[in-house]
Protein backbone atom coordinates (compact mmCIF):
# COMPACT_ATOMS: atom_id res chain seq x y z
CA UNK A 1 0.00 0.00 0.00
CA UNK A 2 1.01 3.64 -0.35
CA UNK A 3 3.13 5.29 2.33
CA UNK A 4 0.14 7.42 3.25
CA UNK A 5 -2.23 4.49 3.69
CA UNK A 6 -5.22 5.13 5.94
CA UNK A 7 -4.86 3.85 9.47
CA UNK A 8 -8.16 2.23 10.44
CA UNK A 9 -9.52 1.64 13.93
CA UNK A 10 -7.11 -0.15 16.28
CA UNK A 11 -8.42 -3.49 17.51
CA UNK A 12 -8.12 -3.91 21.27
CA UNK A 13 -7.43 -7.49 22.39
CA UNK A 14 -8.01 -8.94 25.87
CA UNK A 15 -4.23 -9.20 26.29
CA UNK A 16 -4.03 -5.45 25.65
CA UNK A 17 -6.60 -4.86 28.39
CA UNK A 18 -4.77 -7.11 30.84
CA UNK A 19 -1.46 -5.38 30.25
CA UNK A 20 -3.13 -1.97 30.49
CA UNK A 21 -4.89 -2.88 33.74
CA UNK A 22 -1.62 -4.13 35.25
CA UNK A 23 0.22 -0.99 34.22
CA UNK A 24 -2.57 1.21 35.55
CA UNK A 25 -2.58 -0.70 38.85
CA UNK A 26 1.19 -0.16 39.10
CA UNK A 27 0.45 3.56 38.65
CA UNK A 28 -2.08 3.41 41.49
CA UNK A 29 -5.20 3.41 39.30
CA UNK A 30 -7.49 0.51 40.29
CA UNK A 31 -10.16 -1.04 38.08
CA UNK A 32 -13.07 -3.24 39.24
CA UNK A 33 -13.54 -6.79 37.94
CA UNK A 34 -15.70 -6.41 34.87
CA UNK A 35 -16.52 -8.37 31.73
CA UNK A 36 -14.49 -7.72 28.59
CA UNK A 37 -17.26 -5.62 27.04
CA UNK A 38 -17.62 -3.61 30.24
CA UNK A 39 -13.88 -3.11 30.57
CA UNK A 40 -13.62 -1.84 27.00
CA UNK A 41 -16.18 0.86 27.69
CA UNK A 42 -15.38 1.68 31.33
CA UNK A 43 -13.69 5.07 31.94
CA UNK A 44 -10.06 4.50 32.84
CA UNK A 45 -9.84 7.66 34.93
CA UNK A 46 -11.72 9.05 37.93
CA UNK A 47 -14.48 10.88 36.02
CA UNK A 48 -17.22 9.82 33.61
CA UNK A 49 -15.59 12.05 30.96
CA UNK A 50 -12.39 9.98 31.04
CA UNK A 51 -11.49 7.74 28.11
CA UNK A 52 -12.37 4.06 28.00
CA UNK A 53 -10.02 1.48 26.45
CA UNK A 54 -12.04 1.54 23.23
CA UNK A 55 -11.86 5.33 23.15
CA UNK A 56 -8.12 5.28 23.81
CA UNK A 57 -7.67 3.06 20.74
CA UNK A 58 -9.97 5.30 18.69
CA UNK A 59 -8.09 8.37 19.90
CA UNK A 60 -4.75 6.93 18.81
CA UNK A 61 -6.09 5.77 15.44
CA UNK A 62 -7.88 8.97 14.52
CA UNK A 63 -6.11 11.70 16.50
CA UNK A 64 -8.83 12.89 18.90
CA UNK A 65 -12.13 11.99 17.18
CA UNK A 66 -14.14 14.79 18.77
CA UNK A 67 -15.06 18.33 17.77
CA UNK A 68 -12.05 20.44 18.81
CA UNK A 69 -14.15 22.86 20.88
CA UNK A 70 -16.21 20.14 22.59
CA UNK A 71 -16.07 19.62 26.34
CA UNK A 72 -14.83 16.05 25.78
CA UNK A 73 -11.90 17.15 23.64
CA UNK A 74 -10.87 19.78 26.16
CA UNK A 75 -11.13 17.23 28.98
CA UNK A 76 -8.93 14.68 27.24
CA UNK A 77 -6.20 17.20 26.42
CA UNK A 78 -6.07 18.43 30.05
CA UNK A 79 -6.76 15.26 32.10
CA UNK A 80 -3.66 13.56 33.59
CA UNK A 81 -5.46 10.19 33.82
CA UNK A 82 -6.46 10.26 30.15
CA UNK A 83 -2.99 11.33 29.06
CA UNK A 84 -1.47 8.55 31.20
CA UNK A 85 -3.85 5.99 29.67
CA UNK A 86 -2.82 7.07 26.17
CA UNK A 87 0.84 6.84 27.13
CA UNK A 88 0.37 3.36 28.61
CA UNK A 89 -1.47 2.07 25.53
CA UNK A 90 1.26 3.36 23.22
CA UNK A 91 4.03 1.95 25.43
CA UNK A 92 2.55 -1.59 25.49
CA UNK A 93 1.87 -1.48 21.75
CA UNK A 94 5.21 -0.28 20.33
CA UNK A 95 4.45 -1.92 16.99
CA UNK A 96 1.34 0.23 16.48
CA UNK A 97 2.02 2.61 13.63
CA UNK A 98 1.37 6.24 14.50
CA UNK A 99 -1.57 7.86 12.81
CA UNK A 100 -0.98 10.99 10.80
CA UNK A 101 -0.70 13.78 13.39
CA UNK A 102 -1.18 17.23 11.94
CA UNK A 103 -0.28 20.27 14.06
CA UNK A 104 -0.70 23.94 13.19
CA UNK A 105 1.66 26.72 14.25
CA UNK A 106 1.34 28.07 17.79
CA UNK A 107 0.25 31.53 16.59
CA UNK A 108 -1.70 32.23 13.41
CA UNK A 109 -1.59 35.80 12.12
CA UNK A 110 -4.76 36.75 10.26
CA UNK A 111 -4.66 39.61 7.73
CA UNK A 112 -7.55 42.08 7.94
CA UNK A 113 -8.20 42.36 4.21
CA UNK A 114 -6.71 42.09 0.77
CA UNK A 115 -4.27 39.30 1.61
CA UNK A 116 -4.29 35.52 1.68
CA UNK A 117 -4.13 33.63 4.96
CA UNK A 118 -0.91 31.64 5.41
CA UNK A 119 -0.71 28.86 8.00
CA UNK A 120 2.32 26.72 8.80
CA UNK A 121 1.47 23.07 9.34
CA UNK A 122 3.61 20.16 10.57
CA UNK A 123 3.01 16.41 10.46
CA UNK A 124 4.30 14.31 13.37
CA UNK A 125 3.03 11.00 11.98
CA UNK A 126 4.82 8.34 9.98
CA UNK A 127 3.02 9.01 6.68
CA UNK A 128 4.18 11.89 4.49
CA UNK A 129 0.83 13.28 3.42
CA UNK A 130 1.23 17.06 3.35
CA UNK A 131 3.13 17.02 0.06
CA UNK A 132 0.30 14.91 -1.42
CA UNK A 133 -2.59 17.20 -0.43
CA UNK A 134 -5.05 17.92 -3.23
CA UNK A 135 -4.96 21.64 -4.14
CA UNK A 136 -7.99 23.49 -2.78
CA UNK A 137 -9.07 20.68 -0.45
CA UNK A 138 -7.74 22.01 2.87
CA UNK A 139 -10.19 23.53 5.38
CA UNK A 140 -9.39 25.06 8.78
CA UNK A 141 -12.17 25.61 11.31
CA UNK A 142 -12.47 27.06 14.80
CA UNK A 143 -15.00 29.08 16.76
CA UNK A 144 -13.34 32.26 15.45
CA UNK A 145 -11.98 31.30 12.04
CA UNK A 146 -13.06 29.35 8.96
CA UNK A 147 -10.70 29.11 6.01
CA UNK A 148 -11.26 26.95 2.95
CA UNK A 149 -9.88 26.05 -0.48
CA UNK A 150 -6.39 25.87 1.03
CA UNK A 151 -3.46 24.58 -0.99
CA UNK A 152 0.10 23.61 -0.12
CA UNK A 153 2.51 26.12 -1.60
CA UNK A 154 5.95 25.37 -0.21
CA UNK A 155 7.67 22.84 2.05
CA UNK A 156 9.55 24.26 5.03
CA UNK A 157 12.08 22.83 7.45
CA UNK A 158 10.10 20.62 9.88
CA UNK A 159 10.32 21.30 13.62
CA UNK A 160 12.03 18.74 15.86
CA UNK A 161 10.17 15.43 15.83
CA UNK A 162 8.06 16.23 12.77
CA UNK A 163 8.15 14.18 9.57
CA UNK A 164 7.37 17.13 7.29
CA UNK A 165 6.10 20.69 7.36
CA UNK A 166 4.64 23.10 4.85
CA UNK A 167 2.89 26.42 4.33
CA UNK A 168 -0.76 26.32 3.29
CA UNK A 169 -2.38 29.35 1.65
CA UNK A 170 -6.10 30.06 1.99
CA UNK A 171 -7.56 32.53 -0.53
CA UNK A 172 -10.93 32.50 1.25
CA UNK A 173 -11.47 32.88 4.99
CA UNK A 174 -13.86 34.40 7.51
CA UNK A 175 -12.79 35.61 10.95
CA UNK A 176 -14.88 36.85 13.87
CA UNK A 177 -12.00 38.81 15.39
CA UNK A 178 -11.47 42.54 14.79
CA UNK A 179 -8.20 44.29 13.98
CA UNK A 180 -5.82 44.17 16.93
CA UNK A 181 -7.76 41.45 18.73
CA UNK A 182 -6.20 38.19 19.97
CA UNK A 183 -7.83 34.87 20.91
CA UNK A 184 -5.68 32.45 22.91
CA UNK A 185 -5.91 28.67 23.36
CA UNK A 186 -8.37 28.27 20.51
CA UNK A 187 -9.17 24.64 19.54
CA UNK A 188 -8.77 24.33 15.78
CA UNK A 189 -9.43 21.56 13.24
CA UNK A 190 -7.76 21.04 9.87
CA UNK A 191 -9.12 18.68 7.22
CA UNK A 192 -8.11 17.88 3.68
CA UNK A 193 -7.76 15.19 1.04
CA UNK A 194 -4.72 13.73 -0.68
CA UNK A 195 -4.50 13.25 -4.42
CA UNK A 196 -5.15 9.53 -3.85
CA UNK A 197 -8.43 10.28 -2.04
CA UNK A 198 -7.26 9.77 1.57
CA UNK A 199 -9.05 11.94 4.13
CA UNK A 200 -6.68 13.76 6.48
CA UNK A 201 -7.54 15.60 9.67
CA UNK A 202 -5.72 17.15 12.58
CA UNK A 203 -6.74 18.98 15.76
CA UNK A 204 -4.71 21.42 17.79
CA UNK A 205 -4.88 24.47 20.03
CA UNK A 206 -3.49 27.79 18.77
CA UNK A 207 -3.52 31.56 19.26
CA UNK A 208 -5.24 33.73 16.65
CA UNK A 209 -4.02 37.29 16.09
CA UNK A 210 -5.91 39.70 13.83
CA UNK A 211 -3.57 42.39 12.45
**What's the overall geometry?**
elongated
Order of helices and strands, N to C?
HHHHHEEEEEEEEE
First and last CA, distance? 44 Å
Number of helices: 5
Based on helices, strands and strand pairing, what is the structural class?
A: alpha+beta
Taken as a percent bin, the fraction of beta residues is 25-35%
Q: Poorly predicted ranges (pLDDT <50, ≥5 residues)? A: 1-10
Helix content: 10-25%
Radius of gyration: 19 Å
> Biggest sheet, open or closed, and with what strands and sense?
9 strands, mixed
Mean pLDDT: 79
Task: Write up what this structure looks like.
By secondary structure, the protein is an alpha+beta fold. It is 24% helix and 31% strand. The chain is built from 5 helices and 9 strands. The chain has helices at 14-26, 36-41, 53-62, 71-78, 80-92; strands at 102-104, 107-110, 117-123, 138-142, 145-155, 164-170, 172-175, 182-193, 199-210. Strands 1, 2, 3, 4, 5, 6, 7, 8 and 9 form a 9-stranded mixed sheet that branches. A hairpin with a 2-residue loop joins strand 4 and strand 5 (145-155). Helix 3 crosses helix 5. It is elongated and about 60 Å long. Mean pLDDT is 79; it is low at 1-10.
Amino acid sequence: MADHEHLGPVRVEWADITRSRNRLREAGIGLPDLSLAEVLNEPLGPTVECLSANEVAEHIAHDLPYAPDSARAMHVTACPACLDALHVFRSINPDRRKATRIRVEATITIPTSGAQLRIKVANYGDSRVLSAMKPGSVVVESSFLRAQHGKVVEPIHPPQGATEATVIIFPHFDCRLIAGETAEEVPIRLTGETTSGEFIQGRDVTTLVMV
